[in-house]
C-alpha cells in the first residue's frame, strides 16, 4: 500500500489538523493511519496516528532524533548555535544515555518536592494580584508567568532577570515570520545570559539545579562528563520545554474543566482528585500534539506502509491519546479514570525528564485556582477563543475569565 504525497480530499490534511485536530485525528486513524503530508514549511512528513504504532515507535531505536540522519532537503529545523543545540531533543544513545544519566542525578524527585513550597507561593502571589479584579486573562496573568517563576527558582535565576526570560522564550515559542530579528535576538540573549549565569554559579554555587548540573559537568571524570555546550543546552532545554508545555497544559486544562462543569464541580468538591485530573487533562487535550520529529535510520514498515530512511516521521500523541484502542470513551473527559496509560509525556528512553515537575506544577496551579477564584467562568463567547496556529504546540492565545 502506498500513501500519496498530495492530500486526498476525502482524508483530513494539514489544514484540518490546524482547524479541528481531534476530528482530523479520528478521520486519519480510520482512513490513513500512516500518511505522507506536506507541512506548512512545504516539506513532506509522515504522520502516524494510531496508539499501538505511536507507542511502539516512541521506543523504536530505528527512529533517530539526530538530524544528521535526515535525508538532505527533507527537514528544515530552527537554527540554534551549538551552545543551545547540543540538547537531548537532538540526540540518540550513547550521548543521550550519558547526558540523561547525569541530568537525572540532579533532577531528582527530592529536589522537585523541595520546590513545592515555592511553587505554592508563586501561585498564591499571582492570584493575589488578580483575585480582586473579578476578571483576568489566565494565560497572560497566571498560566504564563507561573512556570517561568518555577523554572527560574529551579535553575537559580534572579527574580530581576525573569522578565527577559519570558520575552526571549515567547519569541521562540511563537516567532513572528514578519520579524525574524526578534527570534535571532532571543537566541543571542539566551546564549549570552546562560553563559554568564553558568560562570557565576561556577564561582558561587547554590542549592539550585543549575549548580548541580555544573557540578556534574566539572566533577564527573572521564568521557562521561558534559561538554560546556551540553551544559548550556540543558539549561536552555529545561527553560524552553518546561515553560511552553506547562503554560499550555494549565490553559488547556482550565478550558477543558470549564467546558465540562460537572467535572469541574467534582474537582472542587474533592481536591484529592487532582492527581488523576492532571493525567486526564494531559490525555484529553495535551500541550504537545506531536512528539519531536524522528528520522528512520533504515527503511521501516509502519502498518501497511514502508517509510524510507531519512524522511521525517511525526508521531501524533494527541491522536494516540484519543484512540479507542487505548481506552473506553476516549473523547469524554473523566477525572475518575483509574487507568490512564496516555502518551502525553512520551514513552521509552525519551520520556519527559521533567514529568514530575510538570505534574506537581499543574496540580498546584489547578487546585489553587479553583480554591481562590469561585464561580470561575469564561468572559467571552466560547467560539471567540483562539489557539496558536501550530501543529507542534496546542495552546490558547488568551483565556479571558470572570469570577
TrEMBL record:
<comment type="similarity">
    <text>Belongs to the cytochrome P450 family.</text>
</comment>
<protein>
    <submittedName>
        <fullName>Cytochrome P450</fullName>
    </submittedName>
</protein>
<dbReference type="Pfam" id="PF00067">
    <property type="entry name" value="p450"/>
</dbReference>
<dbReference type="InterPro" id="IPR036396">
    <property type="entry name" value="Cyt_P450_sf"/>
</dbReference>
<dbReference type="InterPro" id="IPR001128">
    <property type="entry name" value="Cyt_P450"/>
</dbReference>
<dbReference type="InterPro" id="IPR002397">
    <property type="entry name" value="Cyt_P450_B"/>
</dbReference>
Amino acid at each position: 500500500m502506498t500513501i500519496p504525497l498530495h492530500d486526498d480530499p476525502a482524508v483530513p490534511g494539514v489544514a484540518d489538523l490546524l482547524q479541528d485536530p481531534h476530528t482530523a485525528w479520528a478521520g486519519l486513524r480510520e482512513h490513513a493511519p500512516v500518511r505522507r503530508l506536506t507541512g506548512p514549511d512545504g516539506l513532506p512528513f509522515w504522520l502516524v496516528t494510531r496508539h499501538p504504532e505511536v507507542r511502539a515507535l516512541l521506543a523504536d531505536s530505528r527512529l533517530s532524533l539526530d538530524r544528521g540522519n535526515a535525508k538532505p532537503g527533507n527537514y528544515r529545523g530552527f537554527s540554534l548555535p551549538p551552545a543551545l543545540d547540543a540538547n537531548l531533543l537532538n540526540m540518540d544513545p550513547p550521548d543521550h544515555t550519558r547526558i540523561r544519566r547525569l541530568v537525572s542525578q540532579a533532577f531528582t524527585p527530592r529536589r522537585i518536592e523541595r520546590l513545592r513550597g515555592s511553587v505554592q507561593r508563586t501561585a498564591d502571589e499571582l492570584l493575589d494580584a488578580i483575585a480582586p479584579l473579578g476578571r483576568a486573562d489566565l494565560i497572560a496573568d497566571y498560566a504564563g508567568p507561573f512556570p517561568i517563576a518555577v523554572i527560574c527558582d529551579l535553575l537559580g535565576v534572579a527574580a530581576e532577570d525573569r522578565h527577559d526570560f519570558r520575552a526571549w522564550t515567547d519569541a521562540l515559542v511563537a516567532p513572528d515570520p514578519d520579524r525574524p530579528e526578534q527570534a535571532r535576538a532571543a537566541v543571542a540573549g539566551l546564549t549570552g545570559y546562560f553563559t554568564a549565569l553558568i560562570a557565576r554559579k561556577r564561582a558561587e554555587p547554590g542549592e539550585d539545579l543549575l549548580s548541580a548540573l555544573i557540578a556534574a559537568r566539572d566533577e564527573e571524570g572521564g568521557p562521561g562528563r558534559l561538554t560546556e555546550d551540553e551544559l548550556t543546552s540543558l539549561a536552555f532545554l529545561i527553560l524552553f520545554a518546561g515553560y511552553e508545555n506547562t503554560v499550555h497544559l494549565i490553559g488547556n486544562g482550565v478550558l477543558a474543566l470549564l467546558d465540562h462543569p460537572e467535572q469541574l464541580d467534582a474537582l472542587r468538591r474533592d481536591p484529592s482528585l487532582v492527581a488523576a485530573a492532571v493525567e486526564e487533562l494531559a490525555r484529553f487535550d495535551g500541550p504537545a500534539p506531536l512528539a519531536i520529529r524522528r528520522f528512520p535510520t533504515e527503511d521501516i514498515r509502519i502498518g501497511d506502509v514502508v517509510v524510507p530512511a531519512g524522511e521525517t516521521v511525526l508521531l501524533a500523541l494527541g491522536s494516540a491519546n484519543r484512540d479507542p484502542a487505548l481506552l473506553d470513551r476516549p473523547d469524554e473527559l473523566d477525572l475518575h479514570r483509574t487507568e490512564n496509560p496516555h502518551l502525553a509525556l512520551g514513552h521509552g528512553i525519551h520520556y519527559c525528564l521533567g514529568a514530575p515537575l510538570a505534574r506537581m506544577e499543574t496540580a498546584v496551579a489547578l487546585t489553587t485556582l479553583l480554591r481562590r477564584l469561585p464561580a470561575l467562568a469564561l468572559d467571552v463567547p466560547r467560539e471567540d477563543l483562539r489557539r496558536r496556529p501550530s501543529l507542534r504546540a496546542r495552546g490558547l492565545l488568551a483565556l479571558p475569565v470572570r469570577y
